[in-house]
Amino acid sequence: PKPAVRVAVSGAAGAIGYSLLFRIAAGELLGPDQPVELRLLEVDEALRKLEGTVMELQDCAFPMLAGTETGSDARRMFDGVSHALLVGAKPRGPGMERGDLIEVNGHIFGPQGEALNDAAADDVQVTVTGNPANTNCLIAMHAARDIPNERFSALTRLDQNRAVAQLAAKTGASVTDIHDVIIWGNHSATQYPDVTHATIHGRAARLEVGDDAWLNDVLIPTVAKRGAAIIDARGASSAASAASATIDHARDWALGTDRIVSMAVPSDGSYGVPEGLVSSFPVTVTERAWRIVPDLTIDEFSRARIDASVAELESERDAVRALGLI
Ligand code: NAX
Fold first, then answer.
1. How far is the CA of 129 from the centre of ligand 1 (A)?
2. 142 is catalytic
3. Is 99 a residue whose pLDDT tops 90?
4. How far apart are the first and last CA of the chain?
5. Following DSSP, what letter does each residue of 114-142 receive, concatenated?
6. Is 92 annotated as a binding-site member?
7. Whether the CB of 131 sits within 6 Å of ligand 1
8. Degrees (nearest 5) of the Cα angle 252, 253, 255?
9. CA-to-CA distance for 116 and 137, rounded, in angstroms?
10. CB under 8 Å to 97, separation ≥6 — which residues?
11. Maximum C-alpha span of the chain
12. Interval between CA 197 and ligand 1 midpoint (Å)
């Protein structure tokens, strides 16, 4: 058999972790013939709960699960990992401002970036799901001085999947017939789900839908507010869908994809997004490397929305700079 690949998951005892770990162990991240070793990071108070999840993982008798370690020491958990899925974060508590949220999470993602820098495998790829995902990623990337910036990314795949699913429901097309839906900017309410380049059965989505008002006034807010709608209905935030999107993102990055997908990655200045900001772009992936899709035309409608989301990212970056976190 192939040697096992080490995969770290932080926040492993949480709701997303409860879905994510089983799918990784089932082979959905790195393939059905690739053994994986899970390295599960949690805070001390959650380690007992995590033990229960590990017992269940064991009880699944997954053929590809080569081992599981748990602990609260990031350096030890990140030792030799080729994939780090950073899910654990502090949620926004009552009365907490966005600035406070950024600060508490900065104190999680800074040290985790340093630990990755010291301990991870040379080929590590880091995916940040914990919110505020783009800015947490920016902080970890800065803290990991020796890891190339292009190995850091944050999740906007859930937003992409949500937009594709809405288009499929509207048109009756299969999700697999829908291509090139793009998420730009921040994983927040300012994100811009862009269908101007999207196709359905190879035909422009705008023509296939034939309802500009729905595209502009229903689809965009439905995607941007989907997280809140799910909290409203379930009384808890999206977990299985967030885990599924985390798998989609990290799998496509690790194994490649023939599709254009959206990932929040450090900007090279493309599309007027200031260099270094972790912002969502359309990318292609080959040989474990993403590349921003160049030269797409951006109409006025799109430009205004991309600019608004990027402005929010700049203000988050300024806030973490002022706190000395980057
Ligand atoms: P939970 O609160 O269920 O789980 C989070 C876990 O992280 C807890 O078990 C907690 O003990 C752990 N944790 C906290 N600080 C830690 C640290 N320093 N080191 C290791 N573990 C730590 O939240 P869950 O529903 O699993 O969501 C996790 C994160 O994903 C949240 O930040 C959430 O906002 C974010 N989401 C991101 C999405 C995205 O598309 N990017 C969508 C879903 C989700 O809202």
1. 8
2. no
3. no
4. 42
5. HHHHHHS-TT-EEEE-SSSHHHHHHHHHH
6. yes
7. yes
8. 65
9. 12
10. none
11. 54
12. 32
Summarize the chain as % helix, strand, coil (round to 5): 45, 20, 35
Instruction: Tell whether 12 is in a known binding site.
Output: yes
**Lookup result for tokens 């600060």:** 103
The answer to whether 305 is a known ligand-binding residue is no
Ligand 1 pocket test target in 41, 96, 129 with most atoms within 8 Å of CB? 129
18-48: per-residue pLDDT in tens?
Answer: 999 999 999 999 999 999 999 999 999 999 9
User: What pLDDT, on a 0 to 100 scale, did the predictor assign at position 222?
Assistant: 97
For the record, the structure tokens of 246 come out as 């985390």
Q: What is the pLDDT of residue 197?
A: 98
Of these residues, 83, 187, 197, 249, which one is catalytic? 187
What tokens does 35 get?
Answer: 């053994």
Taking the centre of ligand 1 as the mean of its atom positions, its distance from the CA of residue 189, in whole angstroms, is 18
| CA–centroid distance for 263 within its chain | 7
pLDDT digits (tens, 9 = 90+) for 224-276: 999 999 999 999 999 999 999 999 999 999 999 999 999 999 999 999 999 99
Q: Is 296 in a helix, a strand, or coil?
A: coil
40 touches 50 (CB < 8 A) = yes
- The proportion of the chain whose per-residue pLDDT surpasses 90, expressed as a percent, equals 96
For the record, the structure tokens of 302 come out as 């799109």
Residue having the nearest C-alpha atom to atom 20 of ligand 1: 42
Confidence at residue 91, expressed as pLDDT on a 0 to 100 scale: 84
282 Cα–ligand 1 center, Å = 25
Alpha-carbon span 13 to 41, nearest angstrom: 9
State which of 20, 70, 157, 237 you would mutate to test the pocket of ligand 1, scoring each by most atoms of that ligand within 8 A of its C-beta. Answer: 237
User: What one-letter code names the amino acid at 274?
Assistant: P
In angstroms, the CA 87 to CA 43 distance is: 12
Predicted structure pTM score: 0.98
Q: Is the pLDDT of residue 148 over 90?
A: yes
